[in-house]
Amino acid sequence: MRNQTKTHSTSSVQACQNCKKDFTIETEDFNFYEKIKVPPPTFCPECRLIRRLAWRNERSLYKRSCDLCSKKIISMYSGDVSFPVYCPSCWKSDSWDRMQFGREYDFSKTFFEQFKSLLYQVPRQSVWQNGECVNTEYTNFAQDAKNVYLAYSIVYGSENVSYSSNVDNSKDIIDGYNILDSELIYEGIGNTKNYNSRYCYWSSNCIDSSYMLDCVNCSNCFGCINLQSKRYCIWNKQYRKEEYENKIKEYDLGSFFKTKEIIKQFWSFSLKFPRKYTRIVNSVNTIGDELRDCKNSLFVFNAYHTEDIKFAFRAPRTKDSMDVSYIGKAELAYEHAFGGSENSQGIKFIINGAPANSEVEYSDLCQSSNNLFGCVGLISKQYCILNKQYPKEEYITIVKKIKQHMSTVPFVDSKGRNYFYGEFFPMEFSFFGYNETLANELFPLTKEEIIERGYNWRGKSGNTYTITIKALNLPDNIKDVDDSVLNEVIECSQSKKAFRIIASELQFYRRMNVALPRLHPDERYKNRLKLRNPLKLWHRKCMKEGCPNTFETSYASDRPEIVYCEKCYQQEVY
Known about the structure:
With 574 residues, the protein is an alpha/beta fold. Among the domains are: 12-53, no CATH class; 130-276; 280-419; 469-517, no CATH class. Helix content is 20%, strand content 32%. The chain is built from twelve helices and 39 strands. The strands form nine sheets. Strands 7, 8, 9, 10, 11, 12, 13, 14, 15, 16, 17, 18 and 19 form a 13-stranded mixed β-sheet that branches. It has an eleven-stranded mixed β-sheet with strand order 21-22-23-24-25-26-27-28-29-30-31.
């Protein structure tokens, strides 16, 4: 039987079930587990994150038919899965009864076995879309979005977004990653309140600028690093307005080959300048990277307006939670994989969350519900176990027995890992191959490593297209591209995969004066990921001579960048 820890005055070192490495459970962690009434985990924080991300397939999309209305659809599930797949309209409709899949709990079997049986019978939404989505057929994980094409995690009223990921409240974005409150962005990462920018990285409140890194409040700047409140600068050198405008014309930004040279020069130039040990802005008692307006947020990446959270990734506006990813506006959440779960509280072990849930455990795709355990796809329900309704008192009694049963009769996966009450769902239950999911994008493994670790692997069958032009034969300059390119099937110069240029995309390139891409959107995405620091932290010393300060940073010690503590960085920049 698994030990149930009640109170702890000191931290504890444990060996991870999965990677076998030691990890520390701090006193405040034990306090949180006691508050939400779960035992401490047996997987380390990184393995817990990977386990959640292994359920999120963003980019592998398939053509198939809706199993209810027979309409042709785009789906994250292939045509050979065992469960029904419905288009978003059918899935959200009243045309089918979610309770018909309910069943009695069987104490002769493990909970996880029974949940998997239910999970693989209830129909699933072809792509995850919530709120009011318009013209988003070719996207996955969208909420209240409009005109989105092959982009993922596009939320909070974003519009006109293509080939991008993690875009909040922004419009007119192509090839962006982590974009917030911005407009007219091309090839940007970590942009906040930027306008009309190209190749801008981790910069905010910048206007009409290109090739910028860690700049704030700049306008009409080019090729600049670490600038604050500047105008008309090129390669960190100040110019008068007329000089700047004449100089910029010499760069011919609409040329692909000249742009390629500029990018190479830009990143080489950037290594001459110090980097702040972390990109944390306006935050208190916070450890992680790419954070803004956070408080008491530890080991958190890519979030804003958080408070009292730990071990989180892409978790805006979340409070008092641990081990959460792709969540927003939630409180008292634990082991949440994705789905948002806005205005939810007291939610634990959630695969695919949804708004307005309370006291929901070990569930998936449930919405506007409370007091659920082991349920799938329920809307506006309460006191249900495995999709079966119970009176309140009976529900409470059975759930208590189930938790005791889970603690004495764990599920054991193919590699001998034990899943008691308090562990997230086994990765081998995931609908996707590890190689299809965000886990592999952020923590890549070879096919052999995936199989050896007992994770799922899915072979991909490529679509066959007749190539009409190689990418290297496209016109060099956007000014020389006519509308006939919309009829071409282009061969990626890197992967040899086929891709096309759509009309809205071409219009955007002309407006922004940027060259046609030569790489397939997936390859461009991979290149953006390479520019990000990993979701890991290293303990390091400031590289400014004579400074004794140490810190936790996402820059590993073997990286080429000059890394400063906050004080030394501010002295250098301001």
